[in-house]
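Run log, item B.
One chain of 116 residues. Sequence copied directly from the ordering sheet:
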Amino acid sequence: MKHKKWIETAWGKRPQYIGEKKETKFYHEVEKTSVGRMLVDQGLASTRAKPIADAIELIFSSVCACDSENLNFLIDNYPEVLVLAQFYADCNGSPNRNFRNETDTKEFFKNKTEVK
């Protein structure tokens, strides 16, 4: 049986990334972070993936706290920040905030594909 890279969350809407490798020893540094596991699976050293994954999580948390005015500021001036926040949401699935469906950010994400 092939190992699944994505698992359905308890909320059942968007899956969470769990990694390509069945053995968790490959994810020693990043075992508890979906973003970190994805970065490792794509070739980044786990020692670098962990701090980068932590930073992306902080970005996601910060963007979640933004009001409409600040979200529009990010779209206009720092769109990469929104892309990183959505990358976190794509890797972690439901119930995380999905900026692809939000009024203020929906247009920005219209032609951007979800992480697969």
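Observations after the first pass:
- The chain has one domain: 6-109.
- The first helix runs from residue 34 to 41.
Flagged for discussion on Thursday.
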